[in-house]
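Teaching assistant here, posting this on the class forum so everyone can see the example we discussed in section. The complex has two components, and the goal was to see what a joint structure prediction looks like when all of them are supplied at once.
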Amino acid sequence: MTDKRLSMHDAIAEYVHDEMSVAIEGFTSFICFAAGHEIIRQRRRNLTLMRMTPDLIYDQMVAAGVASKLIFSYLGNPGVGSLHCLRRAIEDGVPGPLAIEEYSHYGMVGRYLAGASRLPFYPLRSYLGSDMPSVNEQIKFVESPYGDGSIAVVPPLHPDLAIIHAQRADNQGNTQLWGLLGVQKEAAFAASKVIVVVEEIVEEAVIRADPNRTLIPGLIVDAVVHAPYGAHPSYVQGYYDRDNVFYLEWDKISRDPQSTQAWLDEWVYGVADPAEYVRKLGKATLERIKPGSALAAPIEYGEYK
Amino acid sequence: MSQTATKYVPAEMMIVAAARALAGARTVFVGVGLPNIACNLARRTVAPELELIYESGVYGAQPARLPLSIGDPTLVTGATAVVSMADLFGLYLQRGLVEVALLGGAQIDRFGNLNTSVIGSYSAPKTRLPGSGGACEIAVNAQRVFYIMYLKRRAFVEQLDFMTSPGYLSGGNARQQQGLPGHGPQLVITDKALFNFDSATHEMQLTSLHPGVTLAEVEASIAWKLKHTETLAETPAPTVEELYQIRTELDPTGMY
């Protein structure tokens, strides 16, 4: 078996190309800023970005000019307010025009589910009476073949690449994740290629000791990147808390294109790799976002010989 | 019965009114901010068996601190269950297990339809708002919906700029005819008054004024000609005990 570990630089260089579609998922947690920043550094262009909640990472990527289209379901700075760079792009075409394709959360979940299991569409009880289907022709209604009325359907989503952050994986990409599962599993199975980025690389035996926790099998993983704190300023359950100070700061920084550019210059272009970013964050920040301990009770899988 | 308080802010009145409306409820779909505090207050007062459900995939959350967002890690630690979003929307919400959902938005109309998408036209918006998130399917599937919003003329509008989430659509039995599973909006909690929906026309009607608020004040904050129930009640002010819970236990830093 080949060792799939790559540096963040090499993983992005190999798997992210202009014009392709990329899903960096993670619902509030597990948002891989380290990968997003590397895509900005490598100056990719005309990407179609997919994410339920674009969050700060896509705000930054759109401000840096990497994207021409966004597929999403909630455009906000969670618990804070607006995503100002994305609003500038949508309202004023700054720094360039950004096409949008918009769903509700369950619509996006359904798209990933259909994509992941190679179905032609996914039915869901949503959109009835809503104006959303009138501005997105991908949302359609079909009659149930079993005679119980009309139901909304959404088409499969097939990202060219999914980037999934998690707590741990082995060097084959067998990946374990706990906390808010979001659509991490569905996005990975829906994608053609998968990069997993993890806080820790562990031995295969660690994975095998708790197989119920393996969300993504190495079978569908192309590269494994070790990037501790790679989800900062979002969080990883049990490893670090959301850096809410930064989420509040970004609300100010991102209101102005110049301060946004200055931030990108300092924290993205001015930084070589995820390790340097963590050094630049400094011990005080890492200490501030360190959670207390809450261990689960061990469970018995049993030995069967 | 705890003593009635005299000094409180409008947000506290909203939290208390929402918490009281959750009396006896078993499950509630929680948003961040005021709804979050209201649900936690309800669990400590009128609905001890209330399970908090968050669209981030958490069932039975018991947050140890005030969550900063609906995806806060404090919702995970100590919860009854944490599931994928596919399971949350499919098995919990669409299955019909959500009794009450608390929603808010930028614009609401007289039939309780909600806009959280754009101000202005969709293709060239004056203001781009966050969009649906889970609101559309919550409005469709939750058994009952409560809205929590500040009462303002630009929010309580004659005509929505965009209908993100359905209430009673064009009123009457339009919602039922469309086959939406949930019963629709039941209550609108604002900083000035409480509203419900007429059982036949499904038009929003004023039922109760908060202490010190006049009918004229409320009418001036609504873009359409408001109807009200024959007798208008006065919303009971927050009690000392309710305020104690909010100020010392649920929101000690006074974030809301």
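For the discussion questions: The radius of gyration of chain B is 18 Å. Helices of chain B lie at 10-21, 34-44, 73-76, 85-94, 135-141, 174-178, 215-220, 240-250. Think about how each of these relates to the inputs above.
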